[in-house]
Amino acid sequence: MIAFAMLLAASVCLAQDQGDFKPASSNVLDAQYPKVDGNSRVQIRFKAPDATKVKLNFWSGPKVDMEKQPDGFWTFTTAPMAPGLHYYTIIVDGAEVSDPSSTAYFGGSKWASAVEVPEAGVDYYQPNNVPHGQVRQVWYHSSVTGTWRDAFVYLPPDYDTQTIHYPVLYLQHGGGEDETGWTRQGKANFILDNLIASGNTKPMIIVMANGYASRAGYVVPDLTGKPFGSPEFLKVMQERMSAFEDDMTQVLIPFIDKTFRTLPDRDHRAMAGLSMGGMQTFQVTFDHLDLFSYIGGFSGAANVFLTGNGKMDTKTAFNGAMADPAAFARRVHLLWIGVGTNEPERMKTGLENLNASLDEGKIQHVFYESPGTDHEWQTWRRDLKNFAPRLFQTRSPSATSAR
Amino acid sequence: MIAFAMLLAASVCLAQDQGDFKPASSNVLDAQYPKVDGNSRVQIRFKAPDATKVKLNFWSGPKVDMEKQPDGFWTFTTAPMAPGLHYYTIIVDGAEVSDPSSTAYFGGSKWASAVEVPEAGVDYYQPNNVPHGQVRQVWYHSSVTGTWRDAFVYLPPDYDTQTIHYPVLYLQHGGGEDETGWTRQGKANFILDNLIASGNTKPMIIVMANGYASRAGYVVPDLTGKPFGSPEFLKVMQERMSAFEDDMTQVLIPFIDKTFRTLPDRDHRAMAGLSMGGMQTFQVTFDHLDLFSYIGGFSGAANVFLTGNGKMDTKTAFNGAMADPAAFARRVHLLWIGVGTNEPERMKTGLENLNASLDEGKIQHVFYESPGTDHEWQTWRRDLKNFAPRLFQTRSPSATSAR
Fold first, then answer.
1. In a mutagenesis test of the B interface, which of A92, A152, A155, A165 is the best target, namely the one with the most B β-carbons within 10 Å?
2. Angle at alpha carbon of residue A241, lines to A238 and A245, rounded to 5°
3. pLDDT tens-digit profile of B290-323?
4. What is the C-alpha separation between B315 and B312, in angstroms, rounded?
């Protein structure tokens, strides 16, 4: 955060089109801005002819003032940014809105803007010339919520031409995001296409569900004015976590196993999630170790949000599921904790403490650090790229190498 | 347009939550506004504490001034609106932006806001308790564009449990929209689920492609400042139409026929589209009557945009494809022209002239008028609901009843 703030403060205003600035791949068709140059600097341009003050709000950094141009556009050029997809909004005379030039991505509980800064030498999340799987939107009626719910399901490239059954990874979005996040922001389908084509990853099905659920009859209280983390907010969150857990384990998993050619047992079922989705992953999997044998927390996991910086006692946590480290290692083939090295201090400390607790408890696990990335999608793309190849291998990597 | 303007002008400002106003189904999770009441009035609320002027811009009506409240929110309540999904934007001190409380829908070449006004007594586009098909996002490499392109494909509910082959409807979005429009705005998947469940519509595959294409190597000129309809704009549009036609007929159709269990002949292939997509439909199908035998133009069709209000000479149009009406009726099982009775005058006149030209030329066709709806999605939902049951019937309705 601090490094990023310094970079922004050092930014200079460039003339339009100077250098090798090109429209970002995240723009809508024909939009010339945002632009990104070879040094990962980003130019934003926003039309607000009658505004008094326009601020640019990259969520990973401080808000900065945009500069008004004579043509009614406001502009800003950043210093070099980390690679990946950066959410942002524009604040026009106090109204926080999206940039109409950007593709809208659901994040922060709204359809926000984002700019894709390419990572040099890397194409693992691009649509390369390899066989492509399908991403299917499916609908199921939930007896838990009393509503029709949808989920996105990635099927590996050979699904429709084979008759074999596949293992399944349940992969959850973060807080304020939805079931579209892992494909639209995360490019999970392209990551898996490329991993599978490389031969080192088992073809698998990925299920991406909506992490928000409300039991039938539950009336969500109006949270207007109730900030993230307030008691009212946390109560709704816990109610939804519980409803989500029941919907997933009682309705979604049976629906998926009925609808697709899955291997419907715990040895062929994984769950991972980012941020809030990581917390949900730990809750759901440890409550249901009969259903899951691979567990991934990407920048979010047990205790990080709710109990702060405290250490975990692995002897007693999760009703003692880890009390016997050797038995746990046989039962859970992979326990993965990921974090970006530039994530906010509270997040990093929480995950480092969790890692240290697992070390002290001699709990076999992998602690993955994504260099130079924040609490953002590039961290989670890297998590998935490194996590997926370890899933469903005949001999689990976790059985031979802790960390 | 005029009726709607009068309704807006007559609108009154209501106290918040007065009456039976409820959050719209098109809102993002937990957003309390926009609200809709039982009389189809819509309340919009937008936070802009430091703005001097905020306007509400329903695209089907005139821009209106919102009223600033002491809490920094601006509000407006409309008079009763027509049922359906209404695109809108907010103009904050000259900046035209989306409402963060609304789901974002791709329209007008940006991720715009929209509010869903329910239609009383109608549930044909809702997710009812019937079997649901899947909507699959698929990727194909186009030798025409030199890029990977995606398309959305609706598969009927029984696709994965049957081994039969299905007819295919290619269904195109309008100008400024994309391949997500027909499911996200149009609810095409739910419409087909319900039609198929009712037993009066053949199970079919629907392919929704992106109507914008550029040939490999074509550099799109910067259209900044070039209005819709300008020579520069039309040149780009024609180039894209041509590239789209080649991509669809040379790459997409073979890809679909290879990937899915289709009936790959003209008797089992239809194409329809709305507005620009209707124009594309007429161009593609009349150029390729060897590929298609069902044709639908929803608020857009031959000649409406490019040649204005002129009549069509059915003896010479499309290289004489309709010169022999009886032969044409045997060859084309359904020719459908749809229009909403409240569409803008230019659009209505163009389509009525086309209808009159077809009548005069004794060309068997259906002219469908959607009562009370504008150049908006409710018109096109109704088109699809009435068009789809006429497709792929053993004995084509068009063979026995003109109009």
1. A92
2. 145
3. 999 999 999 998 765 545 557 888 999 999 999 9
4. 9
Task: Tell me the CA end-to-end span of chain B in Å, nearest whole number.
Answer: 27
Mutation pick from B101, B111, B162 vs chain A, by most beta carbons of A within 10 Å, is B111
- Alpha carbons B317 and B306: distance in angstroms, whole number: 14
- How many whole angstroms separate alpha carbon B188 and alpha carbon A277? 31
- Residues constituting chain B: 403
Dihedral class, residue B40 (left if φ above 0, else alpha if ψ from -120 to 50, else beta): left
Torsion angles phi and psi, residue B206, rounded to 5: -120, 130
> Per residue in B334-354, pLDDT tens?
999 999 999 999 889 989 999
State how far Cα B345 lies from the chain centre. Answer: 18
| Cα of B128 to nearest chain A Cα, Å | 8
Query: In this prediction, does ipTM exceed 0.90?
Result: yes
Joined together, the tokens standing for residue B116 give 């869903």
Dump pLDDT digits (tens) for B373-386.
999 999 999 999 99
Closest CA to B189 of B226, B146, B228, B137: B137
Q: How far apart are CA A389 and CA A276, in angstroms?
A: 23
Q: Which residue has the tokens 């955060």?
A: A1
Give the closest-approach CA distance of A48 to chain B in angstroms: 4
Contact A7/B at CB under 8 A? no
Q: How far is CA B86 from CA B56, B274, B298, B382, B385, in A?
A: 12, 16, 17, 15, 19
Kindly report the pTM of this predicted structure: 0.93
Of chain B residues 173-232, which have a CB less than 8 A from chain A? Answer: 178, 183, 212, 220, 222-224
Of A92, A104, A212, the CB nearest to B92: A92
Number of helical H runs and strand E runs in chain B: 10, 19
